[in-house]
């Protein structure tokens, strides 16, 4: 069998290669000047006052909870419909996961679905810009601010997405970002925590580096009698300069990447327009998606099962993935009590993700759509269909 078309493929060019090579040749490969520059450029790109580079978005979510001293006895509201890291971060700090449902159109939490789960023990809420589709963040922020509950934005997938006329993350209290290769800006592994508050940034930098008052790179630049103090127990969550050099190069290209992905999504939309029972992810009224994942909902109206569609496409050499998972259905959360989550269960079982990556040709998208329509039985053999 020929190679299966993947759902995602990272895009590296010679500028990326050169950036990494230059850093390697500089002799400084651990957290240093490249990380500092990446943090500044990323903060500027998303409209944050501060950015703290870390090893992953998962680490960023955990750190965000720790910055609010969330721990045992506290509840944290998270959507079940998310990559499992969102819930895991809560468990890792010893707090209790409380699953919220989502609205049906975009699979996002709303002020209502979140408030439905808030109790006097709620210590924080993590809201997810799922698959790059921006949350309608203002009503959520407003509802939580009056109750004094900190909001953490899981923006792991959302670099380059927009809320109204500003980048996602603009003025966010705390937002966590991922640079895993499955996302559209990658450093291999890596993450960022952005924030507005300078004191939170200072503490985040300290916790990232063993609780030290001085970073290792600062110590190298200062007179040898400069001495660091370890003021609280911390971690090692440092990003390397090799990763940051790659991240800076990728960040420069982010607007072009988003433009390209949105154009490719239009090709799919044009081909699938008007097909009964098929619903393609699109921009919400309040913003613009970076199309991190091109997901599709297959309604029962289409008369076909999602698993069938996936395996038929695979037989034709087209890779797909199930849509966003629902954490409460995984064994790790089988003993976590939860209220009914009907929309999350419906979306996780009826959605799939289609290929979208740099270098994907229009003809390939046409072929994927033809095979999809065949798999759905949506082909009209009397004509007017896309090539069966
Ligand atoms: C990918 C992802 C994460 C985890 O990101 P890592 O950088 O791999 O830790 C967290 N939340 C969401 C919504 C994600 O998609």
Properties at a glance:
388 residues, alpha/beta, seven-stranded mixed beta sheet, four-stranded antiparallel beta sheet, globular, binds pyridoxal-5'-phosphate
Write the layout of secondary structure elements.
Layout: H1 14-26, H2 33-46, E1 50-54, H3 57-67, E2 75-79, H4 85-92, E3 96-100, H5 111-115, E4 122-128, H6 137-147, E5 151-154, E6 162-163, E7 166-167, E8 174-178, E9 191-195, H7 198-208, H8 216-221, H9 241-272, E10 278-280, E11 287-288, E12 294-298, H10 306-315, E13 321-322, H11 342-350, E14 351-354, H12 362-376
Characterization of the model:
The chain has twelve helices and 14 strands. The protein is α/β, with parallel strands linked by helices. The strands form three sheets. A seven-stranded mixed sheet has the order 1-9-8-5-4-2-3, with helices on both faces. Strands 10-12-14-13 form a four-stranded antiparallel sheet. A three-stranded antiparallel sheet has the order 7-6-11, with no helix packed on it. Strand 2, helix 4 and strand 3 form a beta-alpha-beta unit. The longest helix has 32 residues. The radius of gyration is 22 Å and the shape is globular. The chain binds pyridoxal-5'-phosphate.
């Amino acid at each position: 069998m020929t190679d299966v078309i993947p759902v995602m493929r990272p895009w590296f060019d010679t500028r990326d290669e050169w950036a990494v090579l230059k850093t390697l040749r500089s002799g400084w490969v651990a957290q240093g000047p490249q990380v500092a520059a990446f943090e500044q450029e990323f903060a500027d790109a998303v409209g944050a006052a501060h950015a703290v580079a870390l090893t992953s978005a998962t680490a960023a979510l955990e750190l965000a909870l720790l910055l609010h001293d969330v721990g045992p006895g506290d509840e944290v509201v998270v959507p079940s419909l998310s990559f499992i890291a969102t819930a895991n971060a809560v468990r890792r700090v010893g707090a209790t996961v409380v699953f919220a449902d989502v609205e049906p159109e975009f699979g996002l939490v709303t002020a209502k679905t979140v408030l439905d789960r808030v109790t006097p023990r709620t210590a924080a809420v993590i809201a997810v810009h799922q698959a790059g589709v921006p949350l309608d963040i203002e009503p959520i922020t407003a509802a939580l601010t009056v109750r004094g509950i900190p909001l953490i934005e899981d923006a792991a997938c959302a670099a380059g997405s927009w809320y109204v006329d500003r980048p996602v993350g603009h003025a966010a209290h705390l937002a966590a970002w991922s640079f895993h290769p499955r996302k559209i800006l990658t450093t291999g592994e890596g993450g960022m925590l952005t924030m507005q508050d300078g004191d939170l940034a200072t503490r985040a930098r300290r916790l990232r580096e063993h609780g030290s008052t001085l970073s290792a790179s600062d110590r190298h630049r200062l007179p040898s009698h400069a001495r660091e103090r370890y003021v609280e127990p911390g971690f090692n969550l440092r990003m390397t300069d090799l990763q940051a050099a790659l991240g800076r190069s990728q960040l420069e290209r982010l607007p072009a990447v988003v433009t390209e992905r949105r154009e490719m999504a239009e090709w799919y939309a044009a081909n699938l327009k008007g097909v009964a029972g098929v619903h393609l992810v699109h921009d919400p009224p309040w913003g613009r998606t970076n199309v991190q994942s091109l997901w599709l909902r297959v309604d029962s109206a289409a008369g076909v099962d999602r698993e069938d569609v996936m395996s038929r496409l695979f037989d034709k050499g087209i890779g797909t993935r199930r849509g966003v998972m629902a954490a409460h259905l995984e064994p790790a959360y089988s003993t976590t009590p939860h209220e009914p989550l009907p929309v999350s269960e419906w979306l996780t079982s009826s959605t799939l993700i289609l290929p979208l990556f740099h270098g994907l040709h229009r003809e390939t998208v046409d072929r994927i759509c033809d095979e999809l329509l065949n798999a759905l039985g949506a082909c009209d053999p009397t004509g007017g269909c896309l090539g069966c």
